[in-house]
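## Example record

The block below lists the input lines for one assembly entry, exactly as stored, with component labels intact.
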Amino acid sequence: MTDLTSLTLLEQRDGLKNKKFSSEELTSEYLKRIDKKNKDINCFISIDDSAIEKAKKCDEKISNNSGSVLEGIPIAHKDIFCIKDQRTTCGSKMLDKFISPYSSTVYEKLSNAGVITLGKTNMDEFAMGSSNETSFYGSVKNPIDLERVPGGSSGGSAAAVSANLCSFSTGTDTGGSIRQPAAFCGVTGIKPTYGRVSRWGMIAFASSLDQGGVFAKTALDASLALENISGFDPKDSTSINKKVPSLLSEASSNDMDHIVGIPKSIINNIKDVKVKNNFEESIKILKKLGIKTKEIELPNLEYALPVYYVIAPAECSANLSRYDGVRFGYRCEEPKNLDDLYSRSRAEGFGDEVKKRILIGTFCLSAGYYDAYYIKAQKIRNLIKESFLNAFKEVSSIAMPTCANVSFKLNSIQSPVEMYEQDIYTIPANLAGLPAMSVPSGKINNLPLGIQFIGNYLKEGVILNLANKFQEQTDFHKQV
Amino acid sequence: MSEVDNSGWESVIGLEIHVQLATESKIFSNAPTAFGRPQNTQASLVDIGLPGVLPVLNKKTIEMAIKFGCAIDADISSRAIFARKNYFYPDLPKGYQISQLDDPIVGSGKIEIEINDQKKLIGITRAHLEEDAGKSLHDKYDNFSAIDLNRAGTPLLEIVSEPDLRSAKESVAYLKKVHSLITFLEISDGDMSQGSMRCDANVSIRKFGESKYGNRTEIKNINSFKFVEKAINHEIQRQIDVVEDGGRIEQETRLYNSSKNETRPMRSKEHANDYRYFPEPDLIPLNISKEQILEIRNNLPELPEEKKLRFVNEYKISEYESKNLNSSKELSIFFENIAKEVSYPKNAAKWVLGDLTAMLNRYNTEIKNSKISYRDMINLLNKIDDESLSGPGAKKVIELLWESDKSVDEIIISEGLDQVQDEGDIEKLIDTIIEENPKQYEQFNNGKDKLFGFFVGQVMKASKGSANPKKVNEVLKKKLSQ
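Predicted structure tokens for the full assembly:
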């Protein structure tokens, strides 16, 4: 019998539907594998003990043909999505004992679609980090090389898919937190248009940038998973009230024409020649498929990183104020007075990276600095949006590398700026709110690289279709 | 008109009034807003500020704010945009308050007040929407404070005035005007005792004739008309004392303690919060169309000023009476219910503002809690009109209506207040009186006209006040001239 965990989501879905195997079998194979592998990879923070029970119920539904679209598929959630009556830590000591009294919309939607939650995945603390080294629960190791990082902040979710520990997983992407770990772990990851996926119950880092998405083995798997978490949610005011098309049929369509924009100056400035070569090889593959490309300019994108490191910390400094030791979360022992309760609870409950960003954000918003930092950053953010909108007058998607490098060794990056530069190619899509994804594009020294496709607003189907065409022609996504 | 203090000091006052809007649910969550429920039973996930929750704007609050803006002829913003005001406090669950900074819904406007029979315009700087905080309960437990988040997220309209007020009296007149506006607009119950309307006062002093403002202090936590007057007066005097003793006024926030009638420093300017406002990313700006504003403007309810004029014209009452009858919407409705049904609305005004108001004052309550209904008053006034009830009789009825459960008619019967109307009955009474007082009768007939009053008095006394005095006069004239 084939290893069920190595099948794609679509293969598993068909296998379950045609009763080649049961959800119970599939689930227990995953659980066995998690049991064996997680101690090395450390990609799960918690495992749901009721998974097998739920799988049995799914099997009943499948047997009487009342199963939902993802009935019996075992998945993992980034531990940033609240699940009712379950621990939701956000990778922080602050929420180590936090049991959520409600569920996120993403969780609800997938539960209604019939999935089984195997557990919750490790992540950088409050989604702040690009290596998964800031988690209170220890670093996640890259399954491809256990001495290396899986990327971050959704490193646990990327590693779990890469190591066949779940069929697909959810993640969040504020500045590249889905795409960069997808590239590092050799899997497909997509962050949709800002507002496509409800943020209700998804613990906030930077509200105007945070967006939920998925990791999967293939673009087709990702499209099916994504369409099941997307859609308008009246509980999220920034959610987009537009019908979600069948992303799976759009992704697999043969009738879609593409013009892929190549941002010339960005590509010319890639420092690592191997990364540049890999990108150019990928473009050749697209061209071989008959896909048109066009050189474009994306002015002002060089400011994306500094703009991001003003806006994201500013928003996070307010978003994280609620962790004050008063109502929930970590509270210091024997506070002497109110100030002591606040300062010690926060000093002891938050890790260094989180504190650093709260300080940066508080500074940027302070009287006398606000105009010079926050207001200016917002202006440049608008210019970046404009750059993209101009580009999309001529092209249907934009390609660039996901990262400037492959996965690096644990603890090897000590400079915060160097770490922040991890997201140099991914941040622009967050600032503009555009859908973007990473698909495996080959390897350097046996370590995976990704190519990034950025689409126009609500055009997830276009980049998924492009990614699927790319994957039909390549087997990079099968090399993990 | 400025009120000049004896010592030559002029006070400059601006008020920030927080009005709780009378929506059913909170401004950013669907939890109910009712007052006085068991602690923390009306706080939803959003109000508690749990990780991952998001605000959703209650659009009713926008409508209410626009209503207020239209009523004071203010500029209305073309969009509703919110901002986070950051500060730590245990009853502020998120560590920031969702408020408005730029583009408040209501821009500059004006409110007219009347003080010593003079009209004065008070500038309104702005009015913006924000969420209320919860409550810290410091005296419930010995060793720790408790937090009640029922109030957290209750919609507030913060109305900021220009520093146009020159005395505590003007401030109270202005506050009362705002109170009548919000109650007439039905956007708030305006109940200060329940915190539906709260007031902070910015107070400074300067030498009369000076154009520069002095350093101001902000007095927080004033929750009644009476305390506003007392707190401001106290603060003015305190500032004068400090300056006259050679000191200077520090810009600071002070708390008013009503039981001690004093203000105490809360925090100085150096310790003032930097609120680090920035646009609330969880809410996208909401466009407000000209059509929406126009529709609200066209459907504004009758406002106190208009109603005051209408009452004067329609019911022929004095301006003074009309002003008092329009001090609250409920009172104006109570009066009009009566005025529409009786022959002499002027009398209705007299009785409502007189004896009825006296009863409300005696029992320290408001018209909405009146034990005397407008129907009782109609009944009463009709009886006065047809002269079956005397003035003193009506006074008695009003008192007993309040103090007993009897109806108007029951009281009249049980107290024997029905006026004797029958001429025959009155004639009989008069005959008896003449018989009993032959001397006076003779003197009267000999030209001592003054004695007419004596006979009226005797007849009224004999009837125990129940004879209709007019009839007594008529019949007596006839009888005595016979």
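Residues 9-295 of chain B form one domain. Chain B has three domains: 9-295, 302-415, 423-480.
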